[in-house]
Amino acid sequence: MAAPYEYEDLQEARIKSLETLNNKYDPTGKLNEIRLPPLRRRQEASRPRFYVPSQHSSSARLSVTIHGPETMRLDSPFPITFTLHHRPNPTGNPLNQPVTLRWQDTALHEIIDTEISPWMFLQHAEAGKLKELDDGDNGPGFAQMQDAESGALAAPEISAANGFFSLGIDERKVAEVEFMYSGDGLQLLPGGRYSIGFKGSRVHWWRWGSLEYLEGQRREGGTSEDGFVTIPASNLIEVFIAGDSKVSTGGDQ
Predict the structure, then answer these.
(1) Do residues 85 and 65 make contact, with C-beta atoms less than 8 angstroms apart?
(2) What is the pTM of this model?
């Protein structure tokens, strides 16, 4: 399924329920003023970043599509192949310049350990509706099977060996990420159907120019002068959960 897509937001239902309960015990609303803002911030951070043209008004326009097997076993690694595409963008990139960034900053190739996963898992509910599995209390539920040591350097030299790459206009990069179901947080049930998608991310370090041009320089500073690059949410892929509910964590990082 292509983005944008509609789904039942469990975090919204949980926040509304808490708001009603707080109003019952504190009609002044002060309790909600204290308790609800952190939940709203988490909800906003965990929502998919769907494409809007203003995201790329002064930066590179990137998009991502994903593919994967139709069947997932909870006791086996699950691979997802993604394609990152640098699209033409006359407004934000009128000179058709290449862009250089680093895999680790995209949240695609390597995910920093966080309770808010950049991947969305939706359950197929009644009448074909999609239902969010994360109500705000769940962790990602998956451990990524990638070597995280390459992300340890704060300001590495710009080179392919340190994970940097460039994309010319209409160029694509294809890579694979592999997950192992951990059994923590999100609960997937054998026999169920789910949809998986990349929620999108913000790349705070990037530069105009090819890797060949920038190679050897240090990755200094934070966000580019033109702001961050938004990678919008991907399509959804549908998977069927096969096997029993036995979970193995032998593939964790």
Answers:
(1) yes
(2) 0.82
